[in-house]
Amino acid sequence: MALAISQRLAMPEILGRVLAGRGVTPEEAEAYLDPKLATFLPDPSHLLDMDRAVDRLVQAIDANETLGIFGDYDVDGATSTALLHRFFRALGVTVLVHIPDRQREGYGPNGPALRRLAEAGARVVVCVDCGVSAFAALEEARTIGLQVIVCDHHEARTTLPPALAIINPKRLDETSPHPHLAAVGVAFLLAVGVNRRLREIGWYTQKSVTPPDLMSLLDLVALGTVCDMVPLVGVNRALVRQGLKVMARGQRPGLVALAEVSGIKEALGTFHLGFLLGPRVNAGGRVGEAPMGEALLSCDDPVACLDMARHLDAWNGARKDIENDVLLQAIEQVEGTPQEDVPLVFAQGQDWHPGVLGIVASRLKERYNLPACALALEGGYAKGSGRSVTGIDLGRVIIAAREAGLLEAGGGHAMAAGFTVAEDKIPAFRAFLGQRLAEQQAQGGVEPVVELDGLLDVQGATPDLVRLLERAGPFGNGNPEPRFAIARARIVKSDIVGLGHVRCVLSGPSGGSLKAMAFRSADSEIGQTLLTARGDTVHVVGTLRPDTWQGRDGVQLLIEDVVRVGFG
C-alpha cells in the first residue's frame, strides 16, 4: 500500500508509509494531503435542529433583536463564543456574552446568569460548548420566556433539556457522520447556515450589509478544535489545515499577542496551539478572569489584546505553580495507596484548586497510561475532572453515573469529562467508574502499544524529512505525529532542564548528532535511563520537530520511550 501511494503521487516512500499507516488508500491520498473544505465540509442542515436554529436566528437578526451567547470557560468554549460573537457583530447585531466563573458558577448554563441576559435585553441565547445536560437552567429559561439554542458536542443523555433547538452531533437520535466535531466546529456550521439563509432571502442586499468573511474565522476553529483534543480526521482535519493558513496571515490581534507573550517566532502549528496558545487562553478560566480568553479573541485593538495576553500569560505561570503542587500530592497519594485492579487512576484532595484538575488528570493519565480522575473536596462535595486514553469512552461512563443518581452534575466526551459528586457518594462513584471502565477494557482492551512509522538513523533525521512529513498533518488526536525508532544511538550528554524535562544529544553509528528532549520525565523510568546512560547505546522512540531556535534550521526528537542496549 505504501509503495502504491508513493508511486501514484510521485512522493518518497516514507510519506506513503505514513499515510498507509493511517488507513489512507492510494485513491484517497491526494485529497488527504490537500484537505479542502469544499470536499469535507458538510451541509449544516444535516444536523438535527440546525434549520430550526437558523430560522430563529435569522428572524432575530432581521428584527434587530439582542442576542445572548453563553459560553464555556475553556478554549473550545472561548473560540466558539468569539466566533459567533464576531459573526453576529459583523451583521450589526447587539451581542451580550456571558462566560461563567468556574468556582462561583461551575460548568454550563445556570438560571441566574440566563436571567441576567434576559434582563439585559436578550430574547434568544445561544449556549456554546455546553447546555446539552443543563435541564434545570434551561427549564428556568423557559419559564421566563427566554429562547435557548444549544450548540454543543458533549455526550447527550437519553432525554434532552427543554430548548428551542439542540444542535449536537452526539445526540442519541442524531445520524450525522461527524460525531467528532468540536463545539467550535458546530458553531462554525451554525454561522454557515445562518449566512446561507440570509443570502437566500436577499437580506444582505436589502440591508446594504457586506456578508461576513466566514473563512477568516477558521483560525478560531483551528485553535478550539486542536485544544479540545477531538480527533483530527475528516472535516476536523480540513478545518484545522485551512485554519492554520488563515492564522499564518497574522490578522487576528489576539492570536498575534498570544504568540508574542509565548515567545513564538515561527509559523504557528498544532503544537503551538495545543501547548502554548491554548493553555494561556485557558488560564483565565482556571485561575484568573474567566471571560478574558473570549474577550481577547473577540478584540480588534492590538494594544488592548497585548495587555490581555500579558495578563493571561501571568495567570498561566500561576496556574503552573498550582498545578505542580496538586500533581505532586496526587502522585504521592496514588503511589502510596494500594490500587484496585481496575483501569483507573483516582486522586482527591481537600482545597485542591478546581481550575487545575483537568490538567492534573491529564498528567496522571500520561504517567500511568490509564483513565484518570482528580477531585477537589470542599463543603461536602467534590468537583472533578477526568481524562481518558484511546479505546475508553469516559464521557459515556460519567453520563451513566449521573443517570444512576451518583452525581450532582456531569458530562463530557470520550477523552475528557467533568462532574460534581457528593462527598459521601465518592466511594460508590469510584466503584461504578472502575466497573464500567473495566467492562470497556475487556471489550476492546487498552494495552499500551507503540506504533511506529519507520526506523531512522540519526543522520536520517533531517529538516527536509520533517518538512516532508508535515504534508500528512495537521497532527493531533486521531492523527498522531509520525513516530520513529532510532536504533543504536549513543547518548553523548544529558541533563535536567525546566520543570523536570530531560534533554540530551544523541549520536549515530555512522556519525551525526541529534538533539532530543523527554518532557516531564526526570522522575520517570525514561528520564532516569537517559540521565544514567551517558556514553551508552540506546534505542529511542519519538517524534521529530523542527528546531528553529535563534534562526537555525535543525531537528529535535521528542522522546517517548527508550531502552538501553549497550554499555560504553
UniProtKB/TrEMBL annotation:
Belongs to the RecJ family. This is Single-stranded-DNA-specific exonuclease RecJ. Residues 69-225 form the DDH domain. The keyword Hydrolase applies. Keywords: Exonuclease, Hydrolase, Nuclease. Residues 453-561 form the RecJ OB domain. InterPro entries: DDH_dom, DHH_sf, DHHA1_dom, RecJ, RecJ_OB, SSDNA_exonuclease_RecJ. Residues 342-438 form the DHHA1 domain. One of its GO terms (biological process) is DNA repair. GO terms for molecular function: 5'-3' exonuclease activity; nucleic acid binding.
